[in-house]
Design goal:
The complex is a heterodimer of chains A (178) and B (150). The radius of gyration of chain A is 21 Å and the shape is elongated. Chain A is an alpha/beta fold and 178 residues long. Chain A has five helices and seven strands. Chain A has a seven-stranded mixed sheet, with helices on one face. Chain B has six helices and no strands. The longest helix of chain B has 38 residues. The chains are: A alpha/beta (178), B mainly alpha (150).
Chain lengths: 178, 150
């Protein structure tokens, strides 16, 4: 094999390698869980630092309870409007085995703590500054709410945007029955 | 003399970098920090979080933080992806090294091609000079010359 052929082979190998890398990246891109149509995929796990208490909160530790998972940020305007609604749901359903978990993402932790204090939120809130959990769920904006049943499966549809009291109640009821 | 000139040049180039590190401006940092929600640099974004980060940077500059300190604080909040440039440690070092490796390999390949091409050009006239003349042409040339002499 001449040097020319050798160089050609190396060039083809490099181009093929880059193409394979691109295809692998596209195929393995994390687009989040698919919901709707009766699908009940397992809720992606996370362990994040708490905003309202020391230590971390693991989603797995809430197995056996219905979880209302609310993604928010202190700079998000609709998050401010729905926060009292989530607090009310937490107060109403906490004795029935329901827990509301707020996931503050892409935000300063200081701003998030101020938000929790300002809106008098007593349900657990965690901080995900880099937003690493967002792609796992397929969160595209704030706020977004998910319902996890007692077996750790996502049920119903995600609620993108400010959640109404009716949708919140319906989601919780569906998760309780699941 | 040359050494002194080189040292002077190094000092001239290093001085603005040191000043930028000690006294950064919002404008500089806006080009080096990403907006986490829009995936562009801050100077390209007017998203609420971009405005909040600008406000944070302004506060930290006023408090006397260096550029590195401000970046460290942002990384602590938002992770390394908040920086527009990858860090120069670990796996990210590849992003800095690979372009130079590619340029080096390209230059070596180009040099080899030029060297080969120039060798062919040198060999071509020599080969042409040594090529045997067609006997038929030689004969016709002799005939023509003889006719001319006559």
């Amino acid at each position: 094999m001449t040097l020319k052929h050798g160089l050609q082979a190396v060039t083809v190998a490099v181009v093929a390698g880059l193409l394979a890398l691109l295809i692998w990246k596209v195929v393995h891109q994390d687009n989040g869980v698919k919901l709707g149509g009766g699908r009940t995929p397992p809720a992606p796990q996370f362990a994040l630092s708490r905003l309202d208490a020391p230590g971390k909160l693991e989603l797995a530790s809430l197995r056996g309870k219905v979880v209302v998972l609310n993604f928010w940020a202190s700079w998000c305007v609709p998050c401010k409007s729905e926060a009292p609604r989530l607090e009310a749901a937490w107060q109403h359903y906490r004795d029935k085995g329901v827990v509301v978990v707020g996931v503050d993402a892409q935000d300063f932790s200081g701003d998030a703590k101020h938000f929790v204090s300002k809106y008098k939120l007593t349900y657990p809130n965690v901080h995900d500054g880099p937003g690493n959990v967002l792609p796992k769920y397929g969160v595209t904006g704030f706020p977004e709410t998910y319902f996890v049943d007692r077996r750790g499966r996502l049920v119903g549809d995600r609620v993108a945007g400010e959640i109404s009291a009716a949708k919140l109640t319906a989601g919780i009821q569906q998760a309780l029955k699941s | 003399m040359r050494l002194a000139a080189l040292l002077l040049l190094a000092l001239v180039l290093a001085a603005p970098a040191a000043a930028s590190e000690r006294h950064p401006t919002l404008g500089e940092l806006e080009g080096e920090v990403m907006c986490p929600t829009c995936k562009t640099t801050l100077d390209q974004s007017s998203a609420p979080i971009a405005n909040r980060i600008r406000q944070f940077i302004t506060t930290r500059i006023a408090a006397g933080d260096t550029k590195s300190q401000i970046k460290q604080k942002l990384v602590a909040q938002f992770g390394p992806a908040i920086l527009a440039e990858p860090s120069r440690h670990g796996f990210n070092l590849l992003a800095w090294v690979l372009p130079f490796v590619a340029i080096g390999l390209g230059a070596a390949a180009l040099a080899w091609l030029v060297w080969r091409w120039s060798r062919r050009r040198e060999a071509a006239p020599a080969a042409a000079g040594e090529a045997p003349v067609d006997p038929e042409i030689e004969r016709r040339l002799d005939d023509e010359l003889a006719r001319f002499d006559a």
